[in-house]
Amino acid sequence: MTIHGGDGAGTDGVDWDAEAAAFDEDPDHGLRDPEVRAAWAARLRAWLPGRPGAVLDLGCGTGSLSLLAAGRGHRVTGVDRFSAMVALAREKLAGRDAVFLVGDATAPPVGEERYDAVLVRHVLWTLPEPDRALRRWRDPLRPGGRLVLVEGVWGTVSPVGIPAGRLAALLAPLGGRVGVERLSPDTALWGRDVDDERYAVVAVPD
C-alpha cells in the first residue's frame, strides 16, 4: 500500500516516490520472509475468489499482494499514484498476467473494466470521504464480486486509522454480506507481535 494524498506526497507528508526503494524492507510490505509471505498468501487464498479471475489492487505499492494474487492465477490490475512504486511493481510482476497504472486509487483509471475482486490495503483510513471511495470501488465489481479491505488502527497515544466497527457501518448502505476477520493475533502477517487493531473486511455488495 501507499498512502494517497496531494501531488508528490501522501497524506502523512511522506514522498513515497523517494521512499519506494526502501518500501519493501518492512516485513509486511516486501513479504520477503517466507513465513510472512506464506501467511499473506493463505489469507488471500481465503479472501479472493477460488477460481482465477480479475483482481483490481488499489494503492498497490510495489505489488507484493498483486504478486501473490497473480500466483493464484488471477489477472491483476494494480493502481498507485506514485510512479516509482508502479515501476517496482511492474518489475516485480514482469512476465505475469498483470498491468500497473499510475492513478488515484479513489478514481481508478480502468474505464468500463469489471473485476471479481477489488483489493485495498491500508488506504481507506487516509481518505477524507471513505464512504464515497467505497461506492466508487463497488462500481467496477462484477455481480457477486467482493471488496477485500485490509485496515486497522495504529498507535496508542495518538491512534490513526479506522476501527472495524466504523468500516462495517460505512459498508452497510451498500447492502450484501460483510465479514470481519481480526488479524492482530497472527504475528506471521507482520513479522512481529502487534498490539493494535488490524483486520480485514470481505464484503459482497448487492
UniProtKB/TrEMBL annotation:
The keyword S-adenosyl-L-methionine applies. The keyword Coiled coil does not apply. It comes from the Bacteria. Gene3D superfamilies: Vaccinia Virus protein VP39. Keywords: Methyltransferase, S-adenosyl-L-methionine, Transferase. Residues 56-149 form the Methyltransferase type domain. Pfam families: Methyltransf_11. GO terms for biological process: methylation. InterPro entries: Methyltransf_11 (IPR013216), SAM-dependent_MTases_sf (IPR029063). One of its GO terms (molecular function) is S-adenosylmethionine-dependent methyltransferase activity. This is SAM-dependent methyltransferase. It comes from Streptomyces caelestis.
